[in-house]
Amino acid sequence: MRNFREYDIWQGSIKFAKEIHTLTSNFPSDEKFGLISQIRRASVSIASNIAEGSSRTSEKEFAHFLEIAIGSSFEVETQLFISKEIGYIKDSELTKSIKELHIIQKQINALRTKLRSSSV
Asked: What's the whole-model pTM score?
């Protein structure tokens, strides 16, 4: 069985989810059940799907959960842009978060590609 705690992408995703939590703590309280909830859940979903996928016995199944993790990362990216457009975050905060997210996306994609090629 794989140990998800040893994956750099899982560790980075945990750090990213923590940063999103901190970032959204400055959003207006009326967004508690809206954008705050959505963006936090999607950011947590990235690390959660990496962890869940690592428990699967086949590379194909693990790769499927990595696809879900990438989907969640795209959700977060979209929600960050919306947050910036609404005025909840600054350009600098958006840029920093997007850079970190793109690193995670590239790492997930690289692992997914490796798993798919080894399962053929």
From this structure: 0.92
Domains of the chain, earliest start first? 4-118 (1.20.1440.60)
Residues 57-97 pLDDT 10s: 899 999 999 999 999 999 999 999 999 999 999 999 999 99
The b-or-e profile of 66-79 (16+ CB within 10 A means b, else e) is bebbbebbebbbeb
CA–CA separation, 30 and 100 (whole Å)? 27
